[in-house]
């Protein structure tokens, strides 16, 4: 075997060795990048866009004003509705209850007591957090399981911002829609539109109920 042949084989061996080392390095780098990519936290999901309700009511509304005790929240009932006496029922923080003539829909206007828990939840999670706290407290107060339908949703009605949610306690036979807002004085208010079947009369069509809810919100000020 000639010296030239031995040198060529040696050179070829070194080139092959360098190629193998380079490929191993490339594979390691790719694996490391893959590991790093897996460990990176996924970016938070984009914030859902607020639902735009009608700027003005789509059903006739009463001119009579209903105001909170502090005067920083005012609302109107749909035309033909009337207020019912709620004081004898011992409903905490409720300042008005209205119903339609068929007693199939009722609007309850109330305030949420500003305790430490409310302040803490609001500072951390805003009105979305208060919506979840609201349902929890309702369930605890009524001692019955209330099922939220969907998730809380930010809503704009006119120039006002709310967070709304819906729940049921009878497998969606009836649904209660709740809107939560914060006034310029920092008070938290809830407007709850509840469906009832005790009168024996049929509930209004769903579209009409949603129009009623949106119209009440469009006429509130806080």
Describe the structure.
With 222 residues, the protein is α+β, with helices and mostly antiparallel strands. It has two domains: 1-40; 51-218, 3-Layer(aba) Sandwich (Protein Transport Mog1p, Chain A), CATH 3.40.1000.10. Helix content is 35%, strand content 26%. It has an eight-stranded mixed sheet with strand order 1-7-8-9-10-6-5-4, sandwiched between helices. It has a two-stranded antiparallel sheet with strand order 2-3. The longest helix has 37 residues, at 3-39. Residues 19-39 have low confidence and may be disordered.
CATH superfamily of the largest domain: Mog1/PsbP, alpha/beta/alpha sandwich
Alpha plus pi helix count:
3
The helix-strand sequence is HEEEEEEHEEEEH
Report the structural category.
Answer: alpha+beta
Rg over CA atoms, rounded to whole Å, is 31 Å
CATH-derived topology of the largest domain = Protein Transport Mog1p, Chain A
On the 0 to 100 scale, the average pLDDT is 84
Strand proportion? 25-35%
Provide the CATH architecture of the largest domain.
3-Layer(aba) Sandwich
Strand order of the largest sheet: 1-7-8-9-10-6-5-4
CATH class of the largest domain: Alpha Beta
Q: Which percent bin holds the helix content?
A: 25-40%
Q: Report how far the terminal alpha carbons are from each other.
A: 100 Å
Q: Identify low-pLDDT runs.
A: 19-39
The beta-strand count equals 10
Shape: globular
Structural domains: how many: 2
Biggest sheet character: 8 strands, mixed
